[in-house]
Amino acid sequence: MFPVKPLKPTFKSYLPPLQTEVKNSPQPTVRKLEAKLLPGEIVVNEVNFVRKCIATDTSKQDLWGKLVCTNFKISFITDDAVPLLKFQYRNKLLGEHDIPLTCIEQVVTVNDSKRKQKVLGSNQKLKFNPTELIIYCKDFRIVRFRFDEAGPESAKKVCLAIAHYSQPADPQLLFGFEYVGKRYYNPAGDKVNGVDPAGGGDGGGGVEGVQTPLFDRSSDWDREIKRTGGSEWRVCSINESYVISLSLPEYCVVPVSLADQDLKQFSIFFTGQRIPLWCWNHPNGSALVRMSTIKDMVQQRKLDQRICNAITRSHPQRSDVYKSDLDKSLPTIQDVQAAFVRLKHICVIDPFEESDEKWLSSMESTHWLEYVRSFLKHSAELVYMLDGKHVSVILQEEEDRDLNCVISSLVQVMLDPHFRSIAGFQSLVQKEWVMAGYRFLDRCNHLKKSDKVESPLFLLFLDCVWQLLDQYPAAFEFTETYLTVLSDSLWIPVFSTFLFNCPQQRAEHSREFARSKNIHLGDEKVLQFPSVWDWSQQFTAKDQALFNNPLYVGKSATCVQNGAVKTFKRTKKNYSSTLRGIPSLRNGLLSEQELIPRRNSLVLRLKPEFSLLKEPQESPSDQYIREWFSKPADLQGLILPQLLSSHIKVWKLCFLRWIPEAQINNGGYITAFHKVSVLADEIEMLQNRLRQYKGTPSTPGGSPETERCKMYFRASNLSDTPPTPEYLTSSFPFSPVGNLCRRSILGTPLSKFLSGAKIWISTETLANETL
User: Fold this and answer.
1) Which helix (H) or strand (E) holds 652?
2) pLDDT per residue as tens digits for the range 403-435
3) Which Gene3D superfamilies match (predicted)?
4) CA distances to 55, 148, 347, 671, 730 from 738, in Å
5) Nearest Cα to 632, choosing from 557, 582, 558?
6) Separation between Cα atoms, residue 421 and residue 636, nearest integer Å
7) Reduced to 3 states, what is the DSSP secondary structure of residue 256?
């Protein structure tokens, strides 16, 4: 048989071949996930294929990306959009998913299969490969990451890196030093980026160019003496180069009648060599002074008499001096810390869905609001001594570095409207906290060396100020957003403001760091850290507008009479009880109906204070306060706190902002803030049009548009009222999306899964546990 030959194809196509563009089409570009780094910031470890948990009961909304640990922050980088996120308040120094290392409270690693969990400390070993990482933050956030698809060794390394770098062994290992060294100085030691010591580095910038005095030079103190009329007080420079006391500033204010030589001799008898410091002068001549205790009991009476005589001579009426021993009058810093730990449990761990009564009862058991009330009450009593009895007041505390900071600041906020403006409030914090030697490094526990020295006194002070702001919304230039952002800035280790225990410590570490990095300081003596008061380093001008209170009644306000724009000074006749933000008063007493808070107001229902409800024999201070409340308040004068239990509230924006269950969509204070802001902007538009009609400029060298930029929410035109934005919630401008408070992890209650009571307890104790 012959072999069969294959047939040749006979079909011929007359159509052109199909043109495919596979080869010519561009390949989809895959963006490399990289962390955005600041000057001096380096990546120390990272892991890919990490899942950030958005909800606790489902993984459908989780984000996939890379988890990076740097010497500044934890950064989660993803291309995925955050579900349900309608608004994000952005910080220039931090990304959407970033957490500063100094903001980390605890690092908890979990292994699902072995049912093990461990709180990691610095330089610790991890005997299992983690499948989960939970970060507890000092600002009440909880963030959770899963490593199901990540390499086990890489996951372990990044967890250990986060634990290690969040607990630096030395202040110079805090990121601020590297940041300043790289940003403001080049290898030759010359400044770069056009930074000026009075501006970008340690400058006293502020909101929209408002300058804040830092009180690191004698001229700042001189101006404050002149502003308050303290003619019998002078600036003293005996502590230049910190030769007398390491914790005092180089310049302070003392009575004119006390010579420098006498002060040098006295200093050795005071705790920490902290001589008495002038804080403020009342227009009637009374002075507010703070001092530490006298160690030498033999010299105590003699020195007390000498100091009191000098303060008496500085008073124009030669009035007596009243001394307040705060160690005996107020809770200790340990009490405040214990209350804060319990507050964290209530606001983060315990179920929020429980009944209103049980939640408020739990809040009462923390004693936090009780302590807030105690500090406000004691400050009000001292206001009576200064304003009502016209006597000078000495605040005495063992070391003069904790309770004195709180009380001296609150007294000045109540008495002086200057300190209720943004620039004035910032100068107050700078004067009474930063320069007075409040231990921010220890009390904030930046190095996490010991929980025993940690205490949130600065947050307690901000809470007290918020209570006053809530009661007198038109008396403050700033908003609760400003106070909340200021509390968050405690945990950003870029600014020197909240990084050290005293100015001397900052100077010492600056010189040591400069020598180690061969940085030439020249005549500056210290590295020029940026100041927290330069808000442009964190926020845009528009975002800073959220700091401005549209209800604020300043020293003067514009009005229109017969078509002419005039300026008048507000007096008591211009105010009503609605502006004060207080209930109506009949003969200075509250009615019974006003003593009962609304059910869902989150107002603490403490035991009724029968001493205030009955008719007891009034003390002079009680009579002074009652008479003050019986009259309309001058918001540019003295304000006093309302101290009934129904008036002391939970600062929800600070403590409950990360809890999804606590959010009120299109509700809360922000909705009223939006309406008032738009109204204030409309008024500004009308005033600008009147000025244009009269041919007068809006401001010297300014434009109508620049005047209107003070409000975050603005009117589009005068004919239409803009609707309320859909993204407004009671947590605005913050978002709780992705913060895992309450509910459960894998079906198990969070408090039980992580052994409840262990959370927020001593990191040292938990770090030493063995599995």
Assistant:
1) helix 652-655
2) 999 999 999 999 999 999 999 999 999 999 999
3) Pleckstrin-homology domain (PH domain)/Phosphotyrosine-binding domain (PTB) (2.30.29.30)
4) 7, 18, 16, 24, 17
5) 582
6) 10
7) coil
